[in-house]
Amino acid sequence: MKIIISYDQWNRTVLAKRQLSKAIILNLITGSSMIEAIIRTTLSSYNSRVGARKQCFDLETQNVSAVECHQILTKSQEDGRTEYMVFLLIWRHASINVSIIMFVAFITIYFTNNMRHIIDYSD
Q1: Mean pLDDT, the chain, integer
Q2: Counting C-beta atoms within 10 Å of the first and last residue's C-beta, which end of the chain has fewer, N or C?
Q3: How many CB atoms sit inside 10 A of residue 38's CB?
Q4: Nearest in space to 69 (alpha carbons), one of 42, 94, 95
Q5: Which branch of life, at top level (predicted)?
Q6: What is the model's pLDDT at position 107?
Q7: Are 93 and 75 in contact (CB under 8 A)?
Q8: How far apart are CA 101 and CA 95, in angstroms?
Q9: Highest mean pLDDT: which of 51-65, 82-96, 103-117?
Q10: Distances in Å between the alpha carbon of 108 and those of 53, 90, 113?
Q11: Nearest partner of 42 among 61, 22, 70, 25, judged by Cα
Q12: DSSP secondary structure string, the chain?
């Protein structure tokens, strides 16, 4: 299992919140891994903005490794494109316990960051 976390402005947008909701609903309907659904949704949003669609678009058909995705993320960080997003890459066959733990961590980080902005902007 590989976990890569970086930051971007993705979760500040309404679109991001809608996509996260769609990913969770997709998980409930298809019965696939919740983390996998979140990864696919996040990758689609990320790739459409940084032009990495060909390199890191679909984990299943392209068989993209976590190392390759990490290289793409690192390059875009150097270009100044990533700043604030929680981006999770986990192997497809992570156990259900790992998926639950990572989902809870994702939600915790998401709401913690949102609360930080509320506090920062209240002055």
Answers
A1: 52
A2: C
A3: 25
A4: 42
A5: Eukaryota
A6: 72
A7: no
A8: 10
A9: 103-117
A10: 29, 18, 9
A11: 22
A12: --------SGGGSHHHHHHHHHHHHHHHHH---HHHHHHHHHHHHHHHHHT-TTTSS-HHHH---HHHHHHHHHHHHHTT--SS-------TT--HHHHHHHHHHHHHHHHHHHHHHHHHTT-
Q: What is the pLDDT of residues 36-82, one digit of tens each?
A: 655 655 555 544 444 444 444 444 444 555 555 555 555 554 544 43
The pTM score is: 0.23
Residue that is written with structure tokens 């790739």 in the block: 47
Helix axes 96-120, 34-50, angle to 10 degrees: 50
Distance, in Å, from the CA atom of 44 to the CA atom of 58, rounded to the nearest integer, reads 8
- Using only C-alpha atoms, what is the Rg of the chain? 14
Say if residue 105's pLDDT is above 60. Answer: yes
